[in-house]
## 1
Amino acid sequence: MPLTYLEFDLSEDTQGLLSWSALACPAAEHTPALHREVQALIEDLTRQLGAAGPVDEGHAWDMALDIGREADRTTVSLHLSGGDALAECLNRWIDA
């Protein structure tokens, strides 16, 4: 499934941990589609990699999801971190 609303930026820390960050703030009529996209992505990652949790405690990936509302717009901030397994899973979405 290609991503329509989430556009990720990739960074890497000095220990090789990869992090992807996306911020989306679509017009109100696109909010339900954004929520479906986020839910589908998280469900797919969970299916492939297991539950999200601290990488330094043995999890394959971790995430932080923040949803805010201002006036008539919803803002979604999604941060994902992990290693090569997460990168492989995300590439299927990002390159679709």
## 2
Amino acid sequence: MYVGLTRARHQVVVWWGRAQGSQHSPLGRVLLCRRPDGTVGDARPGEPADSQILAALEGVAGRAPGLVAVEEAAPASLQPNPTPPPSPAELSTARFTRSLDSTWRRASYSSITMAAHLAADPVVASEPEGHTLDDEPPGPADGRGVDGGSFGAAFPGNVAGPGPGGHWPLSPLRLIPGGRAVGTLVHRMLQGVDFSATDVRTVLSDAATSFAPAPAGVDLQILAEGLAAAVTSPLGPLLPGCTLRAVSRRDRLDEMSFELPLAGGDRPSGALTTNGIARVLREHLPATDPLSAYPGELEDPLLAARLRGYMTGSLDLVFRCRPEGAGEKWFLVDYKTNRLGPATGSPETAWHYRPVALAREMRRRHYPLQALIYLVALHRYLSWRLPGYTPASHLGGVLYLFVRGMVGPEAPLFDGHPSGVFSWSPPPGLVVALSALFDGDRS
């Protein structure tokens, strides 16, 4: 009844017809059972008389002079001198003359890359409307065959598994299956937990049990222990000496949603293309950048190449901190539960999540494109909300946290980068140029 009475733009017509049980109807209760404080009670016993309903309706009309009319309906044959109905107007078929822009839509990283992911893995589906992730692969990935790169010192812990070049710590989440349901659960747990809590393991354990029942094959206590290791793992060169434990509630935003107009939004004057993004990347990325080869992969014909309308998404985590020797900076985090270990045989270890393997998975899943879209959103947000904002001073970079490879405080280092953490700090001019490209500036 509330919807029916409040959605009309010009006029509402409400009918009352006495029938058995009419006092139990929403309208009957609103007219007859309203208390002095405005709340509506349960129906009174007995069917109301027409005179009671008429008095109640006239009371409503009296409180809204000139806006509410009360009329008693009667068959036309009982009305004195009934007015003959007007002659029916001649009907004609309306003609639709407006053109529709079939390329205008609400796009996201997932919708752009959907066809490319389907070609690689047919079980990846389109973007869901609910709170289910679709940027996580649906099952295990085989990380074998990735070129090894150089290694740091072997991890000195007592829980280790074999890997090229020595023994490496086992992944604390090696017994947790892959898939979107697990990825969604991990995101919800990390979103709800205070990283800086005194006993973060207990907090994560409590959070895990609150989400019972768990997805098939998931031991919630093992999951909580594994995420506790991830929260205490070093974050790498962008944040030397820091872990997620250093991020307090007041310094973070979780699941920050955004919707950005593309080339004019409601009134587009052009389009955003993946080739245009690739061109901007080539102009700004030095040859030494870890993603310098990615622009060529953006020219994949399976990507949705032309976009008009809006770009939408949700940032897993944004936090601010002061890295050593620097001012306050803002960082973008995306959690990943991808499995990069072997499909069979030896268990997953930190070696499977070394930087070269993470970079390969980033490119294979087009995560750099996701990172760029999210960086533009963060850049816009900070430019609107932070006085004196400049990208060079305040944008710290991107951290893709592959939680299965984050094994705790003593995580092994590979050329200074801890296992499980892919960090990237793009040139500030790249983010500014991409933001302009999103606005339709093709110069």
## 3
Amino acid sequence: MKILLFDSGEVDLYPLSMTRPIGDLRSGILSARERWETLTGIEVLYGVRPMLRARFGFSSFPDEPVLCINARLEPNKIVFQEILNLAPGEAISYGDDLIAWHCERLGSLEEVYGFNGKYARQLSEKMVWLKYPHELFNRCAQRIDFDFELLCLNRKSAALHDSNKLIGDPKKLFIEPGASVLGAVINTNGGPVYIGKDAEVMEGSLIRGPLSLGMGACLKMGAKIYGATSIGRFSKVGGEVSNSVIQDFSNKAHDGFLGNSVLGSWCNLGADTNTSNLKNNYSTVKLWNFREHRFEDSGLVFCGLIMGDHGKTSINTMFNTGTITGVHCNVFGEGFPPKYIPSFSWGGRDDSPAFDREKAAEVARRMYARRNMEFTEEDYAILSALFLQTRQGVE
């Protein structure tokens, strides 16, 4: 058997889902793909829109049963078990939305997206979806709790070096092999702290859980991290961070405040970049809606920055409450930029020119090379398609 994580409603998760499958977004300690693979030991495939298939898809449909699962599902033991108990041919819906389908033979992704819900039984448990990007930080604590139990059950943590100060339950701290943690203060009273394989916590770091620090990631000297926060693989973080999610390979390495925010992959925040996460009048925050092409009330009182993949800022950049940037944005200049910055913006202002497609690709290639990775033709094809969509006003 194989598991197929299929995307649905990905426009609502823009800009984060512009460049990658929903199941590839890190939330908590794990992404959805990693979570299902850890739970089941079964290979997970992605069902994505055509633009992403060359990069994230698969060459041919498996000649074996496929358990199709909606990638937007939030971690839930009861729901997950109900999915895993599906017999061949059975499916579960929630309202009009397909949750999961045990398909005996899958011939195309269109079979999944065209599935007739009348042949499915309704989910018995109340469903929680990942619908909007801000829910990544809003539900980060629950995801870290779920993943911590999943990953650390019946396992022994590496020892905490004597130079550190631990406050709270030692069972809520887990350090993977190869991690270096020296001279830090770690408080687990608010939630678990997970330090990934080969990660580094430099001296003077102050940590309050829940926190996930991914494999090979680094907390710089004197970092102040408030939970719930998830930091992706090989990311570098310094300064002050509160209740934020940072995807893989992104850097906020210097002083500055990041609060109630989400950064995509391959982002870099210049020194003293700051986000406002609370309006002066304490009213709710309006966010750009990519489906409706307008600002809408999010109902959130705390919301900072949501940045798509390959976003960059210059030193001393200031973001207003509830700012959203698309992909491949370079933000610089005096004062606050607009609260919505379209993809491929060079400057981030209303009158800013477009970031040239080939120059954007060259920057991406350099960033990948710094991590000994290759920016492939498939990556370039996604960049190019998004560039054309942005210029045509489709975003």
